[in-house]
Amino acid sequence: MNKAIWPKTLWNRAASLALLIAAVGCSPLGAGSTSAQGTATNAPAAQLSVHPVSGLTVVPLTVSTASGAHVFKVEVAATPGEQERGLMFRTVMGADEGMIFPMNPPRPSAFWMKNTVIPLDIIFIGADHKVLNIAANAVPYDLSPLPSVGAAAGVLELNGGRAAQIGLKAGDTVNW
Question: Where are the alpha helices (H) located in the chain, listed in sequence order?
């Protein structure tokens, strides 16, 4: 095979596979999901997909609570622009979906619900991947700041009430 053609052919095949994974994994009728969200830098390529609305990468995220491990598909809002937009204007999100906001370096953080249509649980995560605190059932459109208790290395947004459903509390572990 011509060396000049092989990399392009391989790239096209990989891109086609990624699109297929994104279409199946992020489809409203995908395995147990009604929409998807996320981005990460260290997830295996086979687990990466792209959210059909935001265009952000979707990765698995595991929350470990006293009731066991709970796996979510989350969009990773990695850039300042992605983090500023967050889940604004979204009208629906699946029960096992969310968005992660990685913060490097970790820092005190505060979120608000400006232009956010759905209620959210905002989970602040420390550098050790332990939950610092949870702003439960944040009210849509509310401009009140919801602060972290300490320096956050990440902030996870889930549907409002979901943290309570899985028994999530301060000290539990979140890995993405």
Answer: 5-25, 80-85, 162-166
